[in-house]
């Protein structure tokens, strides 16, 4: 049983990203012939033949717009894969997505400042519990180690 919830990119943001991404570029959908791309809309890997898009996404900027935070220099954008068309979102399966490799957990305060990070063998309840032990932590980003890409965010339980 998971205590914390992995949050995908929300439907309204996905709609915007499918038009113009956070770098101001139009989305360029393509057919994923091989599969395996980590989709941030439904938090699973793509299947061969699915239509997906690689877009630029600024997770802290989007979060700050909702919360009033001011991340300053920590506002970064990077590549994420999403379905090219609407999808139903995560299936609610057990465990944390993309947990088959080492991940970095970046902790952020309510004002959007980074409070530190940790390399974990895989995201799990203990890793998130440790991240949220600091009462100043409002949000955790899970990122891929090999490229540093944003995978999903986790908030307080």
Task: Give me some keywords for this one.
10 strands; three-stranded antiparallel β-sheet; 17% helix; alpha+beta; 3 helices; five-stranded antiparallel β-sheet; 157 residues
Structure, described:
Helices cover 17% and strands 32% of the residues. It is an alpha+beta fold. The strands form three sheets. The protein has a five-stranded antiparallel β-sheet, covered by helices on one side. A three-stranded antiparallel β-sheet has the order 2-5-6, with helices on one face. It is globular, with a radius of gyration of 15 Å.
Taking Cα atoms only, what radius of gyration do you get, to the nearest Å? Answer: 15 Å
Described by its quaternary structure, the protein is single chain
| Extended strand count | 10
Mean pLDDT: 93
The backbone outline, from C-alpha atoms, is globular
Sheet with most strands: 5 strands, antiparallel
Count up the helices: 3
Distance between the termini: 13 Å
Structural class: alpha+beta
One letter per element, helices H and strands E, the order comes to: EHEEEEHEEEHEE
Which regions have little confidence, pLDDT < 50, spanning 5+ residues?
Answer: none
| Sheet with the most strands: spatial strand order | 1-10-9-7-8
Q: What is the helix content?
A: 10-25%
